[in-house]
């Protein structure tokens, strides 16, 4: 109880004024939590405002086209979040009469909602004592209690969840959860926390044993895979180009991209010219090939790095489905493609 009391006292003085802290509306809280998965507050805040402006209720979100949702999400990454957000909104409206489940177990049944998000919504909106455990919480608990169990191990996940549940203030679970997350975000930071002004510095094991930099412990990640992407940017004399929608369950599902050729390694212009010689997109048309970026753009995802080149093909005529260059910004694209579109001069 002392732990929670100290935490919430600190929170009352030091918390940031964030818009989702002014409400207990489950739609608003759910939206903020999905946006902030894998995303820092500074980056996610403009998206939060944009989504609420465009979709002020779960009804508005459910009725939207997926492309519109993906376009608004563009730049946040992990696009499965946006697809799950949209699908779950439809489910809530069509199957649950637009009413969010009001328990942790009920919320867990929603697509895209895991233990952390269900705990956050249940505690903040419905006052259920369900403890949140995210990266900030792992860090606070591992340091304060001196726990060196890896936080990304099966044992660690269970151990920290049980501890967090034991510590939660059952009278004010929402306040407690927000306090411990905020404490990890701005006080018990990953690097260089100011332990001298920490309210727990008289009882924190990591501080007393000089182990702040050692905790939390995390198992090494899987080896990152390298992939080599070559995008064909076709530009016709009548100012058209080609975008294709990605399908399947891989990265960027349902987003648009320039025609892609994936190779085993990087290619120079002569190697690539030979590679595309019989490509059906070119269809015996006359074209001029050039390379936009001599050095590959490295786009880092969680388990893979994409070494990317954009190949410009000025072509006399595009003999497949094409779009006017002026319309290219209407399509939802990965940030890698979006950055290219913003910097390349289409003419």
Keywords:
five-stranded mixed sheet, two-stranded antiparallel sheet, elongated, alpha+beta, 41% helix, single chain, 13% strand, Endonuclease III, domain 1, Nucleoside Triphosphate Pyrophosphohydrolase, 347 residues
CATH superfamily of the largest domain: Hypothetical protein, domain 2
Sheet with the most strands? 5 strands, mixed
Strand % is: 5-15%
Termini distance? 66 Å
CATH class of the largest domain reads Mainly Alpha
Secondary structure tally, helices:
14
Q: Mean pLDDT across all residues, rounded?
A: 93
What is the CATH topology descriptor of the largest domain? Endonuclease III, domain 1
Shape designation: elongated
If you compute it from the alpha carbons, what radius of gyration comes out, rounded to the nearest whole angstrom? 24 Å
Number of domains: 2
Output the structural class. Answer: alpha+beta
Total DSSP E strands: 9
Query: What is the chain-wise order of helices and strands?
Result: HHHHHHHHHHHHEEEEEHEEEEH
Indicate the CATH architecture of the largest domain.
Answer: Orthogonal Bundle
Helical fraction: 40-55%
Summarize the structure.
This protein has 347 residues and is an alpha+beta fold.
Please tell me about this protein's structure.
The chain is 41% helix and 13% strand. With 347 residues, the chain is of the alpha+beta class. It folds into two domains: 2-214, Endonuclease III, domain 1 (Orthogonal Bundle); 225-343, Nucleoside Triphosphate Pyrophosphohydrolase (Alpha-Beta Complex), CATH 3.90.79. Helix 2 crosses helix 3 (41-54), helix 2 (26-35) packs antiparallel against helix 8 (115-126) and helix 8 (115-126) crosses helix 11 (173-186). The mean pLDDT is 93. Keywords: 4Fe-4S, DNA damage, DNA repair, Glycosidase, Hydrolase, Iron, Iron-sulfur, Metal-binding.
